[in-house]
Structure to design on (435 residues):
């Protein structure tokens, strides 16, 4: 049977983490447990795990550093459970009580994707540096974090706001959903915390509205519960909350968790802004702002080498405009060419920050998706194609707008396979699917 664990558990005993481990296993975040640091290091050296969860009772001064060293060159997000406030400074997340399994899985996913995006940013910098271009993550990161605090000004909510302010956060208070959305549409925020109060309806209304808005969708949401057992945590995480602070969580710890969410979101936006900043450069495709074939080939080779070294999967997708009568007519009138800048912009915005989009030919696009299995990559490309396929493009006077649909091919990198061979297999898969 294949070893498919994703999370290392470092715990001498099962008492504190046992239920969390069982819950993570049930959610697909398969775990492997090490009872001591030496065993944990051996597991990380032998298997490409995504993250680690450490019982505070097993934590010593050098545990975090040694775990990260054992995982190199992969980044290893680390969560410490059972840590008194302020006792752990070098982990990605420290909590006093074991989180709900759904909550832990969500935070592990966020931390893992953030680590992969950071890896890709450094690879992208190297690719552009080879062409004399300095790609820097710039100034927005140095500005104070901004958090929207939505809800009635009760004692504990005010205490949380004060704790955030003491940490240098700019807190904007919104007593009602209406004022909350006014603020959200006026200026950017790094996170939002919603007060449960006696009635969850205002908080759930804000969360629902944000998740229906493409610009606000990615802002991390925390719900601060007023009382215990007011609403099922599974339901809350399904509604899009990134974190839920229960009634017995100290305000200072809630503030630290919210700061971690806000900081990660700010970094994510900073990286995306830096990567998007190159779209107007001469090295990019002039029409779409995507990677040219030559630049994509050079970067894909770099990503492939890094994926092998980190023992992460890598997949490539190829998308080609599907031939039909409407597309043929739009092509003859030059309207398909006129639509390409918009299509390129859509491809660029629909991929994750760590994915690399390219234009290989006039009507052919490619995606490099690090840390992604083949079938997941195909699904991602098909979703992108479906979104673009819902957009009507101008076909000229007296003609109905046309829709651009795509054929999709995908391939996952095999052992010792070159980047060029991987791209060739993805292209071959596209042609096989359209015969």
């Amino acid at each position: 049977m294949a070893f498919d664990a994703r999370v290392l558990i470092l715990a001498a005993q099962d008492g504190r983490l046992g239920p969390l481990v069982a819950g993570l296993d049930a959610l697909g975040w398969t775990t492997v447990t090490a009872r001591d640091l030496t065993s944990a290091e051996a597991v990380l050296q032998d298997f490409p795990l995504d993250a680690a969860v450490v019982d505070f009772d097993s934590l010593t001064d050098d545990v975090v550093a040694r775990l990260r060293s054992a995982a190199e060159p992969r980044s290893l997000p680390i969560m410490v459970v059972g840590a008194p406030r302020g006792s752990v400074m070098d982990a990605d997340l420290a909590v006093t009580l074991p989180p709900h399994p759904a909550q832990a899985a969500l935070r592990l996913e966020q931390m893992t994707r953030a680590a992969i995006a950071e890896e890709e940013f450094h690879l992208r910098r190297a690719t552009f540096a080879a062409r004399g271009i300095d790609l820097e993550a710039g100034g927005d990161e140095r500005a104070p974090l901004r958090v929207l605090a939505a809800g009635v000004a009760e004692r504990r909510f005010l205490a949380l706001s004060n704790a955030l302010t003491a940490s240098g956060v700019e807190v904007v208070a919104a007593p009602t959903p209406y004022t909350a959305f006014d603020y959200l549409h006026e200026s950017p925020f790094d996170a939002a915390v919603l007060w449960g109060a006696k009635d969850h309806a205002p908080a759930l209304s804000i969360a629902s509205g944000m998740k229906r808005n493409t610009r606000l969708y990615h802002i991390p949401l925390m719900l601060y519960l007023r009382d215990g057992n007011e609403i099922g945590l599974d339901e809350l995480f399904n509604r899009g909350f990134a974190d839920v602070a229960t009634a017995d969580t100290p305000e200072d710890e809630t503030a630290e968790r919210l700061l971690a969410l806000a900081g990660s979101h700010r970094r994510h936006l900073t990286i995306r802004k830096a990567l998007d900043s190159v779209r107007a450069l001469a090295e990019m495709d002039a029409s779409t702002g995507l990677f040219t074939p030559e630049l994509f080939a050079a970067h894909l080779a770099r990503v492939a080498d890094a994926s092998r070294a980190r023992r992460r999967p890598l997949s490539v997708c190829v998308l080609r405009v599907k031939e039909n009568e409407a597309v043929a007519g739009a092509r003859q009138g030059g309207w398909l060419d006129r639509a390409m800048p918009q299509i390129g912009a859509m491809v660029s915005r629909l991929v994750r920050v760590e994915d690399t989009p390219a234009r290989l030919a006039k009507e052919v696009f490619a995606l490099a998706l690090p840390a992604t299995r083949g079938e997941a990559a195909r699904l991602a490309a098909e979703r992108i194609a479906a979104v673009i396929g819902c957009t009507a493009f101008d076909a000229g006077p007296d003609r109905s707008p046309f829709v651009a649909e795509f054929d999709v091919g995908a391939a996952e990198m095999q052992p010792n396979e070159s980047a060029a061979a991987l791209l060739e297999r993805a292209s071959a898969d596209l042609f096989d699917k359209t015969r």
Remarks:
- The radius of gyration is 23 Å.
- The longest strand covers residues 314-321.
